[in-house]
Amino acid sequence: MRDQPAIEGLFSSPVALKALIDEIPMGILILGPYRRIITMNRALEALTGFYREEAAGIGCHHILRSRICFKECPLLKLDKHSEPLSYESDIINKDRQRIPIRVTMAPVIDTSGEITGYIETVEDIRAINTHDAEMHQAFSYSHIIGKSPKMERIFQMLPLIAQNDSSVLITGETGTGKDMLAEAIHESSSRAKGPFIKVNCGALPETLLESELFGHKKGAFTGAVENKPGRFRLAQNGSLYLTEIGDLPLALQVKLLTFLDDKIVYPLGSSKGVHVDVRVIAATHRHLEQMVKAGEFREDLLFRLNVVRLHLPPLREREEDLRLLIDHFFNQFTTHFGKSVKGFTKRALDILKTYSYPGNVRELRNIIEYSVNVCQDEHIDSRHLPAYLTETPHEPKPRNEAMEAPQPMQTPPPRAAESVQGKNWAEIEKQMILDALYQAGGRRSKAAEILGWGRSTLWRKMKHYKIS
């Protein structure tokens, strides 16, 4: 305790400042007179992703990275007679997440009446903002948008899942929104006021990942100059989100399994376990059952994580959501960029509706952001879309999707060409689909390829013609 800040005179014996502020569930930041960080508590470590040891001595704007820091530091407005100031803003944490916060700051006055430093409290207000947003948005849950049957089922399940502490496994292709779903579960749960800690299991080498997750004791290895609590302990009373769980090395899979069984973590270099109260949410785009068969993932860990499983469908299977998402991102980016663009031309919309989106919602968002950025007209046209949507040979032709009235067939399947006489267009089109499915052996993706359509178009037309 001697080399650590302590509070004297308040209690009958000196108390370690670190231990005292760590018990407070809100972020605490203590600064010197030149606005450099003296220390901060564990809640702020969890929120920012920075440890107090690496933050000590650094200007607070390098750690909080708040929008108000770069306009005019509010601390400069404080003098020794000032009342505490409170602002709502946001921070960019170490994982590059933008988190809305409410920060309250006040000067610390010494016994001679002069400013000797500052103290700030930092409150995560994501749960409050999410509740407000839910009150004003239809077809959404938290920040997730959708009205397709598959998404509605997920929205119905989320409140039930959030009420318990079971482990959750989220699966889905890249870009489907697994991170947002994990945050939605946390924010809907009784742990919403606790930290939400995200760890990308594929972003760090095994040795660093073990220390990052479980922490280490001072002297556990070369360079371990301080005790490090690890992400499990930082997530105390909250949720730990392990993304890309399929990339977790086998050795660490054993440690994770041990934690899920007894809720105790063992820091590197220590034989003494620490009990932590954390809910684990995991996600992956990989097929874990196949990885189990290949010996790359532990079957017992899969069973343990798979207590509750949520699968996010790819965007190509959410046809009802496509226009909703296009409008959502369009409104978001026109507001954000201050653009006066009014909407899309039919040609641009046709292209957006027929594209297959292998990058899913994330790719659609990027496309709309790009289009709003480059558009200088009243409406976004095809020339404002990314070039790969209109120039690559694999792109479905807008003409096929925009086709609303009967038109002569350009490339009918061979069997359809033999049987078009005496039929109306609807009968011909239905026959085309049946022939294509026959040629493809029932595989819809292959049938869509034969017809030159997107998979979503084929699915919609099959539904229209009641082809099962």
Features:
468 residues, 5-stranded antiparallel sheet, 5-stranded parallel sheet, 22 helices, 17% strand
3D structure, described in words:
It is a single chain. With 468 residues, the chain is an alpha/beta fold. Helices cover 41% and strands 17% of the residues. It is built from 22 helices and 18 strands. The strands form six sheets. It has a five-stranded antiparallel β-sheet. The protein has a five-stranded parallel β-sheet with strand order 11-12-15-10-16. A two-stranded antiparallel ribbon has the order 1-2. A hairpin with a 7-residue loop joins strand 1 and strand 2. Helix 20 crosses helix 21. The longest helix is centred in the last third of the chain and has 19 residues.
Give the rounded overall mean pLDDT.
82
Helicity, in percent? Answer: 40-55%
Give me the secondary-structure category. Answer: alpha/beta
Low-pLDDT segments: 394-421
Number of helices: 22
Strand content: 15-25%
DSSP E strands, number: 18
* Biggest sheet features: 5 strands, antiparallel
Cα Rg? 28 Å
* Termini Cα gap: 72 Å
> Largest sheet, order of strands side by side?
4-3-7-6-5
Overall morphology: globular
In short:
This protein has 468 residues and is α/β, with parallel strands linked by helices.
Blueprint of the fold:
Blueprint: E1 6-7, E2 15-16, H1 17-22, E3 27-31, E4 37-40, H2 42-48, H3 52-55, H4 60-64, H5 67-71, E5 85-92, E6 98-109, E7 115-124, H6 126-136, E8 140-141, E9 144-145, H7 149-162, E10 168-171, H8 178-188, E11 196-200, H9 206-214, H10 230-234, E12 239-243, H11 250-262, E13 264-265, E14 274-275, E15 279-284, H12 288-293, H13 299-305, E16 308-311, H14 319-337, E17 343-344, H15 346-354, H16 360-374, E18 379-380, H17 387-391, H18 398-402, H19 414-417, H20 425-439, H21 444-451, H22 455-464
Parallel strand pairs: 10-15, 10-16, 11-12, 12-15, 17-18
Antiparallel strand pairs: 1-2, 3-4, 3-7, 5-6, 6-7, 8-9, 13-14
